[in-house]
Design brief:
Layout (H helix, E strand, L loop, with lengths): L4 E6 L2 H12 L2 E8 L4 E7 L5 E7 L20 E4 L3 H7 L12 E2 L5 E6 L5 E6 L1
Parallel strand pairs: 1-4, 5-8
Antiparallel strand pairs: 2-3, 3-4, 6-7, 7-8
């Protein structure tokens, strides 16, 4: 059994597509719509075949819950391994991403930091 994908709702498919393709090297797989649900979908994939499904509703509403609240049950973030955090942040400057934490020394990884994607979804970057 293999992990296949994670799905994120976003407000702008084009912006999220660029963010994840340019910064994380994900490749475009497919795009489709569910007109009866007023939703568009986009599938991106890494070199291992793991997919990121992005969907956009015709009338999206902003996430109001703090998903980083560890007391609440549910998904908290997605994570990507990077060569060096500083190089990634330099490459990501044009996206004006928020840094949620400073770079920290890790326990199971060398170092890590939390940032946000274009929709303020927490993303962990870590060095192995």
């Amino acid at each position: 059994m293999n992990f296949h994908h994670i799905a994120l709702s976003v407000k702008d498919l084009s912006a999220s597509k660029l963010f994840y393709m340019e910064l994380f090297g994900l490749k475009f797989v497919s795009e489709f719509e569910k007109p009866e649900k007023n939703r568009k979908f986009l599938i991106l994939e890494d070199d291992n075949g793991t997919r990121l499904e992005l969907s956009q509703d015709e009338n999206p509403t902003q996430l109001t819950e703090d998903i980083s609240d560890k007391k609440k049950i549910g998904m908290k973030h997605i994570a990507f391994a990077v060569d060096t955090i500083e190089q990634f942040l330099e490459k990501a400057e044009k996206y004006k991403i928020k840094q949620l934490t400073p770079i920290k020394k890790g326990v199971s990884v060398k170092r890590y930091i939390f940032i946000t994607d274009p929709d303020n979804i927490p993303v962990e970057l870590f060095e192995i």
